[in-house]
Design a protein that fits this description.
CATH architecture of the largest domain: Orthogonal Bundle
Number of strands: 0
CATH topology of the largest domain: Arc Repressor Mutant, subunit A
CATH superfamily of the largest domain: Winged helix-like DNA-binding domain superfamily/Winged helix DNA-binding domain
Helix content: over 70%
Number of helices: 10
Length: 190
């Protein structure tokens, strides 16, 4: 099915492009929001993503899955937007969607937290911990722990090696876990 869709897209079929937008726009918008933390900016960048997809689909070689290619464009556009705004280090919305005790449990190897959790009072502290990560670690961490991509998929999206992805995620977890444990201890003592 993906091959058929890609073929139709390369022919310039507007119905195929509408189908692609309908299929991928919710995930692209959510990803943009996680990086930009602003609904309007996320909507604007989402539109830019699909403009790029439309303009570039004819040169897409198919060496990755269509979804991976779209996600790579999305991440790149989001990082470009952050650079334009001179925000060198921004966090994903991990703190907005997770409670602190579940974050600490997860960092220690527990299950991935439920995405329906409500924001709590520790968001600023979590944001500060995650804000300390370099962009490449934050991207790998977000793709792995929030979006649920496998390490090989992340390597494809980030255009890097599997070993590099594993290292980025490991270093990100090491950097934020101590801070998050302190936040957990403080919230339990409060």
């Amino acid at each position: 099915m993906e091959a058929d869709l890609l073929y139709q897209l390369k022919l310039g079929d507007k119905a195929a492009f509408a189908q692609l937008v309908a299929q991928f726009s919710p995930r692209v918008l959510n990803t943009c929001y996680r990086f930009l933390l602003n609904q309007q900016d996320a909507e604007d960048v989402s539109q830019e993503v699909f403009i790029e997809v439309y303009q570039s689909v004819k040169t897409f070689k198919g060496d990755a899955k269509l979804s991976t290619w779209i996600y790579r464009i999305t991440v790149t556009k989001c990082l470009d937007e952050l650079k334009k705004r001179n925000r060198k280090k921004r966090i994903s919305s991990l703190g907005k969607i997770l409670l602190i005790d579940e974050v600490a449990n997860w960092l220690k190897g527990g299950a991935m937290p439920d995405k329906s959790l409500h924001e709590d009072d520790n968001f600023r502290a979590i944001s500060k911990a995650l804000n300390s990560l370099p962009d490449n670690q934050r991207v790998a961490f977000t793709l792995s722990k929030i979006d649920g991509y496998s390490n090989p998929e992340i390597a494809e999206i980030m255009n890097t090696t599997l070993n590099a992805v594993e290292s980025l995620i490991s270093r990100a977890k090491q950097k934020v876990s101590a801070e998050l444990e302190n936040i957990l201890k403080n919230s339990l003592n409060a």
